[in-house]
Amino acid sequence: MRELIRIGIGAFAAAALAACATVLVGHGEEGIPPGPPPAIARSAGGDEALPVIDAHLHVNFAGKVDPTSGLPDTRAELAAEMKRNHVVGAVAMAHAGDAYEDLSDLGVIQCVGLGAEVDAAALEADLAPGRYRCIKVYLGYVHRYAYDPAYEPAYRLAARYHVPVVFHTGDTDSTKAKLKYADPLTVDEVAVDHPDVTFVIAHCGNPWIESAAEVAYKNPNVVLDGSAFLVGDLRATSPEQIETYLVTPLRWIFGYVEDPSKLMFGTDWPLVEIGPYLEAFKRAIPREHWRAVLHDNAARVYSITTPSEAAR
To answer: Is 232 exposed, middle or buried (0-12, 13-18, 19+ CB in 10 A)?
Structure first.
């Protein structure tokens, strides 16, 4: 299987991913991707609602329409989308300096965002009481590599409090970002040097999905989230674009890592609506692994106990 996957890897990258890392799309009712309506994921047996955890979204709640997706960036909209798609939990990525808002009633846990400098005392004050349950490092936006010594205090605290560290990797939406710092290959160094910390490569390093998949395949303490391969209004996006830039890359990643525990569902809401992204994600993953990828992996990585988990 491994050799079959490796054959033609360069051809796929050239054909499917060279055009761009992220596609911004408009709005409308045409071009709805094929498949079942984006309502509730179904279990492998198809008889019951499958619980979902969105492992990557944002909760700044600007109270305005997001210019990328056209979605209202509000708590009410997030709650409605979660309910509509049976999303029983989520992981919110804060930026450095963001105000904290308790969203436990929605099942949302939060990652504290780091800037260029790490205030170890302040970070520990956020982690110790469990207010934040993961750490987010914005590679590319911050001009430091994952292995920069400035982040060592954060990695030590992650080990002490048993919380994962999430790296932004791949494409950015800022012209001031420097992409060399966002290369997912650099995560290999910290994974090796900190085997007692779980690291998450957000966005699967898109467009450098081959590097991200290899780092996750090689390192037992690295997992991937598949958020933001496409952003915007997927209902107005052609099925061909969705297949090329979202479904096919995720299908390749899942096959390459050869481990259903290595990939987590995520969207990057409010940049994209949860339902259509979920339906496209399901087309990339074999049905028998939906439960792991759409729920169980995030529950394990982020120590989330959802109503579904409590009942098991």
So the answer is: buried
Q: How many structural domains does the chain have?
A: 1
pTM: 0.86
pLDDT tens-digit series, residues 67-91:
999 999 999 999 999 999 999 999 9
| Dist CA 181 CA 28 (whole Å) | 36
Task: Find tokens 């120590």 and name the residue.
Answer: 303
Mean pLDDT of 280-286: 98
Taking the CB of residue 32, how many other CB atoms lie within 10 A of it? 17
Whole-angstrom distance, CA of residue 129 vs CA of residue 229: 34
Gyration radius of the chain over CA positions: 18
Q: Specify the 3-state DSSP secondary structure of 216.
A: helix
Cα-based angle 247, 202, 163 (whole degrees, multiple of 5): 135
How far from chain centre, in Å, is Cα 152? 23
**Domain at 239, CATH number:** 3.20.20.140
